[in-house]
């Protein structure tokens, strides 16, 4: 990579490794959850499927041995993706497994991170489907633009939604959210309880997210936005335990960097 462009081959490998690791981590979490879940039983959720044929098909797929077998397959395909050997078959299988898991968890197990994962898998599918008809370079460029626009849009919408909410403009929302973190309420003397600190942090988030589309200005600007995003998502993981958000959005950064370098 020089100071003006990001090589497509490097971007593709970064994307495959990060997306594959994200999928692998999610598969391990699903395995762990199957032993402790007492809320999301399929016997209850199946009642929400209106189509009887689809419900019967999912009944079979979500029997514990078959369901766990699907997770093993997903984990194995994730390793193949990380190794750089995923073709159109692996891409289709990973996409379909993601859709099945979305059906299992009422559309999303972990909010936006699941949909961003689906965005990454859709980009992978676009690249390999179009690549079967033409040179591989152009399909990957199209796929990266799709992933980039979806990722930038997610930050942009998040920032402007915050801008429209008075509790974010005043900084109150930040303290409320941090009080609900996995480590418990903020300490009494935490700097985040300071109205001035909360206000500065809130407006920093609002401006950074709302201006994220400027990452396409050039590679250097994109690197700054993505670096800040990586720190932001790590802090979300640290305070709220949402590690999926970190890896799901991180896997889109190679696409953003590549498109910005153009």
How many domains, in number, for the residues? 1
**Binned strand content:** under 5%
Identify the overall geometry.
Answer: globular
Number of strands: 0
Structural class: mainly alpha
- Unreliable runs, pLDDT <50, ≥5 residues? none
String of helices and strands: HHHHHHHHHHHHH
Mind describing the biggest β-sheet?
Answer: none
The rounded Rg comes to 20 Å
- Helical content (DSSP H or I, runs of 4+): over 70%
Number of helices: 13
How far is the first residue's CA from the last residue's CA?
A: 12 Å
Whole-number mean pLDDT: 88
Give your account of this protein's structure:
The protein has 262 residues and is mainly alpha-helical. The chain has one domain (8-261). The chain has 13 helices and no strands. The chain has helices at residues 8-36, 42-45, 52-61, 64-82, 88-104, 112-131, 137-164, 166-169, 172-179, 195-210, 219-240, 243-250, 253-261. The protein starts with 7 loop residues before the first helix and ends with a helix.
